[in-house]
Amino acid sequence: MTEGEIPIHGGVQTQAELSRRAATRAQHAAATPRPAARPVVRLPAPGLPGGALLFLSPRREAGAPAPFRSQPRSTMSTSAFHVAGLLEKMTSSDKDFRFMATSDLMAELQKDSIQLDEDSERKVVKMLLRLLDDKNGEVQNLAVRCLGPLVGKVKECQVETIVDALCANMRSDKEQLRDIAGIGLKTVLSELPPTATGSGLATSVCRKVTGQLTSAIAQQEDVAVQLEALDILSDMLSRLGAPLGSFHASLLHCLLPQLSSPRLAVRKRAVVALGHLAATCSADLFAELANHLLERLPGPRTPAGAAGLHTLVQCVGSVGRQAGHRLGPHLDRLVPLLEEFCSLEDDELRESCLQACEAFLRKCPKEMGPYVPSVTRLCLQYLKHDPNYNYNSDEDEEQMETEDSESSEQETEEEYSDDDDMSWKVRRAAAKCLAALLGSRPDLLPDLHRSLAPALVHRFCEREDNVKADVFAAYIVLLRQIRPLQGWVKAVEEPTPAGSSLQVLQGQVPLVIKALQRQLKDRSARVRQGCFSLLAELAGVLPGSLAEHMPVLVSGIVFSLADRSSSSTIRMDALTFLQGLLGTEPAEAFHPHLPILLPPVMACVADPFYKIAAEALLVLQQLVCTLWPLGKPRVLDPTPYVAEMSEAMLVRLRATDLDQEVKERAISCVGHLVGHLGDQLGDTLHPTLLLLLDRLRNEITRLPAVKALTLVAASPLQLDLRPILAEVLPILASFLRKNQRALRLATLTALDALAQGQGRDLPPSAVRTVLAELPALVSESDMHVAQLAIDFLATVTPAQPACLVEVSGAVLAELLRLLRSPLLPASVLVAAEGFLQELVGTRPPCVAYNELLSLLTAPIYEQAGDGGPSLHKQVFHSLARCVAALSAACPQEAAGTANRLVRDARSPHSSTGVKVLAFLSLAEVGQVAGPGPQRELKAVLLEALGSPSEDVRVAASYALGRVGARNLPDFLPFLLAQIEAEPRRQYLLLQALREALGAAPPDGLKPYAEDIWVLLFQHCEGTEEGTRGVVAECIGKLVLVNPSFLLPRLQKQLTTGQPHTRSTVITAVKFLISDQPHPIDPLLKTFIAEFMESLRDPDLSVRRATLAFFNSAVHNKPSLIRDLLDTILPLLYQETKVRRDLIREVEMGPFKHTVDDGLDVRKAAFECMYSLLESCLGQLDLSEFLSHVEDGLKDHYDIRMLTFILLARLATLCPAPVLQRVDRLIEPLRATCTAKVKAGSVKQEFEKQDELKRSAMRAVVALLTIPEAGRSPIMADFAAQIHSSTELTALFDSIQKDPASVPGAEPMELS
């Protein structure tokens, strides 16, 4: 700003301009009648150059009108008054006044609080339309920008006035006014509320505009008008195509002739508009468009104009990208033509053909199946299409790595550079088409990998950076397809079908590294970024595969870290890649390279750019963890490096003027360094700990400091932390009172680590300060915090028993209250057991054994009356576990406790709750009490099995099995005899046998295996399904005792047994499958096909049990069944169909009730289909899969609930095939959402219908997340119907706002 200029709103003004504006203001003031004019006080403005004056108005007297103010007003009258003042200024002859007033109006319109009356709306619209023809361009631009926010503030009639005026201006003779009108129409259309919101404004405006646009396009008088109209039409169709259904035919007939326009720009815009139209038009119009294009496309030997052919192929590509899912039926005619056109010597045409093929592969992969070989051949041919360059010269130069060779190479590239060379676009289109092929056909992965991977690796030498980036991207897509499945399926499983691809890839790694060796030092930062991305993906797919190539990788990383000529992004990418490499490759691979690697990383730690420094600190942290892991001998001597690393970290740790991210990373990095190499720090250890203590006091850095302190305290180096303990513990105690949950959790973890490592060195006074905060944390309100608090108490009790005595009463009171919670997680129960054992295990005990036992059981023993247990069943199990834990901690008391429990169980005066607790406790205590009390237990337990209380019977059955498991010779023959002799108690005795089989050691069961086997198969034909279920579980547990002998016998029972026996056998096999690796898995895999043959069984119950078994296998161990899916899937799909022969009518008095015996089997089949999506998606034919889902959408209530969930998951996992049939999927959803319950129905019917509607609406929301789905005319119509209904709108909005309703977020809970 020069002397004599004054900064004001809107720019810098000179003194002369200020004076002129002041004069203009005076003229306006004179022209405007005002009451009693006031003198203006002129004061010199100190500090302003040029003797500038400030104009001050004196204080207003009472009754005088308020001067104009720019503050927002809440009422309509004040808004109108304010806007009127701005409108007056817009008529000024001074362009500055007009500009400032328009700018102020823009600011007002953007406020939500503005309210305009009808007259003000009309005046604002009229003024803005007038300003569109202003002489000043800046005013015009501002006026156009005002139209956007104005659309949402005025009534529909005013919007139509704006649109009419803009359309009229489009036909103006003035070029500038036409341009402004075009921009204005685009602005208005972009601000119109979507039709999905229920507003009809967009529809009415678009209909008004469409007719004028079509006439402007068809006239062909002025090309500029035509181009602008096509642009606007494209925008309108992309956002609001569906509401224009009545205009689609006229638009199509208007746009098709433009494909033969002599002007390239017109043809290009028409192609874009037709693409958007194809996505939203009806099926008949789409067929007309497709037939038109196919008829106009010449045959392979028919001569045609190059320009017309280009346009038609580009139009096919545009339609494919926007509505490719609708082109499936026409591909048999289109794809062969495109393949023929590629043989013509026209690179631009080849690019368009390959782009169209890419769109087809992405949008309709199944229909492109027959053409995959030919498209692959085309892509491989044109991936290396570079007629103007000889790559052999580069291969010869690979031996030379000097600067001279690089400069000569640069000259060669410049020599071959040609602005007219279009071949690079063909190569890029081929690479993108290959990426689409790899991404859309995972089922062809092995074949595609063998044919495409070598070609892609060979093209890493590509000379054009744009093409090279797409080649890298295609190879990355291939790697991601090969990557083993994650989620439910863990790495412990056998190799998936991608296993063979992994082996092939392992052999290709050296070729990949060789191809990337020169690229890692390329001058282009973009190329190096692509190399790092590809190598990071490769390291993730094959961890450890890059170790032998570390010299090449380290050289490339150091090259990029030292490159300061490019942007900082490349250094961040190099650091990120190095961090990932440290996590996937063995530490020994880095040892020789550390002297080269460490200096540039240290330099990045000191970099002034915070993002680089933060990333470098993360790398340094990973370096320390990888090269000097805890708990392992140090292979590499850290002495030469530790001082340099420590100093670099401490410089960052001491600095206070750093970005928060750098501060946190520095603290974490120091924590890892001290935890891993603290014994090497020497004299710098104490200052480092003091720095951590200082960061602990800072509110901004306290959380990362607590985590760092945890690392130091938990270190196996047993560092001496006594100098800081007295100050650290009170600070940590204060954190336990904070509302920040993450801080409380981290603090409790740190306290536990300190108690484990420094327990006896903790100052007692500081420990008491911490313990005083703990009772409030042992609460049901936050179980995770409670668990960590109890863990700390268990750790600190043996180290500081005297301190615990003082707070044990308060802590125990809260702990006992927590144990009575029915929501108690298993982890908290285990922590409580450990703490209770420590309380009685100290010498002297903090709490006496009998006292603690009385406290634990008091809620049960003090319970009044005998109306059954008033506490939740889970509470009895929790208390029984705690009683057993106390007995295990004091073995000398165990026998007495067991005797006391037996007496309580026998006593006729004991309440039901006391007996339940006694039996459950005996089940746990019996394992540590010895054989003494067990002799008299038989009679007690058998007597209890006849108790009138079901809770007592179940508890006694459980106790019989658990106690018997520890004394098999005495109990097991007795139990088997009782099962034979007591048919009325058979179910309870079988449950006891199940517990015994699960708890007993396998070797102890082998002598009794044959007797148990015979007994169990005698009960397979029982009439009670519950009994057969227990028998099946017992058989499964028994097979695990001797799998190689018993599993073949189990399989033979499928051919010899009756239906109930076959069903029980299949259910027993289900219990052999667990989510963890088991020795039986390889053997089970050899028999799985024979068990799955039961899907052909004529009995419904057997098929249902087989489906449940298949579901368990898919869910827990997919590798068992993947190779059999080709055989199993047809049988599975057969079970999803409704069988009329299984539907019967049952008379219930005067009513007839329809019963579908096949419903349960269909439900089981659809549940299996859901599980297949999670673990075997690559092996599914999604088109066939979706056909059965579509049928299920019209089935019974239970089936529809399942298929709605399936559909939502499919929309998330594989949107392309869902999009192809979205029109057919919408109709059943619409029927469900709009269905009405019959008048007079019971409450349950209304509730079922509401839940069904909600589930269907979740599926609709999931479908709408597919970008192109909203363009479907049927979907758009349904969306409008939803928003026209208050009930459906509320349901739709609630699902969108509810995070739990996000489709596919969680696996379905399967029965």
TrEMBL record:
PANTHER family: TIP120 (PTHR12696). Residues 393-421 have a biased composition (Acidic residues). The gene is Cand2. Keywords: Repeat, Ubl conjugation pathway. Belongs to the CAND family. InterPro entries: ARM-like, ARM-type_fold, CAND1/CAND2, TATA-bd_TIP120. This is Cullin-associated NEDD8-dissociated protein 2 isoform X1. Residues 1120-1282 form the TATA-binding protein interacting (TIP20) domain. It comes from Octodon degus. Residues 22-41, 389-421 are annotated as: Disordered. It comes from the Eukaryota.
